[in-house]
Amino acid sequence: QHCALELTQNCLVAVSYCALLQFEPVGTLHNLESPLSDIQSIRGLAVDWVSRNLYWISSEFDETQINVARLDGSLKTSIIHGIDKPQCLAAHPVRGKLYWTDGNTINMANMDGSNSKILFQNQKEPVGLSIDYVENKLYWISSGNGTINRCNLDGGNLEVIESMKEELTKATALTIM
């Protein structure tokens, strides 16, 4: 099983053992949604702190998709279907954009799932998708070739930040501070 954490205004949201959990500041644990027994895999958690929505990637009924629900678990719906090999998901609520990896591609769509497009192909096992909200940059690790990459949020100005082939061969996450 995959585990993911996302910190948003005064709460921590976690994916663990096919359940979405929300931790309030006082330490109270809530099931964000009833147990998700029909979902085979949950990963790629992202929080829209502006609209108070939660996004995640799941596999249900032999299809992988990106889903959205309110932070209280209501209004669950699938917004992007037919994803092949997703690993990571990131949200930029102020700009209204979602970003995700699918196989060797970096993808982008509006937060309602519309206007989906591939930003980059042939990224060799991209992982660790992360957004620099101050500089408005998207970062990821191409673990297959040992590079950290970044671009503008629209996909322009692709840069290779650092080549660290030996150190990044097993990288799984990246965060921007």
Describe this structure in words.
- The chain has a 4-stranded antiparallel sheet, with no helix packed on it.
- With 177 residues, the chain is mostly beta strands.
- The two termini are 27 Å apart.
- 0% of the residues lie in helices and 53% in strands.
- The chain contains no helices and 16 strands.
Features:
single chain, 4-stranded antiparallel β-sheet, 177 residues, mainly beta, Neuraminidase, globular, 0% helix
Mean pLDDT: 78
Number of helices: 0
What's the alpha carbon Rg, rounded to whole Å?
16 Å
Distance between the termini: 27 Å
Largest sheet, strands/sense/barrel = 4 strands, antiparallel
Strand content: over 45%
Major β-sheet strand ordering:
1-2-3-4
What are the secondary-structure elements, in order, as H or E?
EEEEEEEEEEEEEEEE
Oligomeric assembly: single chain
Helical percentage: under 10%
Number of strands: 16
Shape: globular
CATH class of the domain at 4-126: Mainly Beta
CATH architecture of the domain at 4-126: 6 Propeller
Q: Within the CATH hierarchy, at the fold level, what is the topology of the domain at 4-126?
A: Neuraminidase
Q: Runs with pLDDT <50, length 5+?
A: 1-13, 15-19, 25-30, 33-38
CATH superfamily of the domain at 4-126: TolB, C-terminal domain
Q: Structural class of the secondary elements?
A: mainly beta
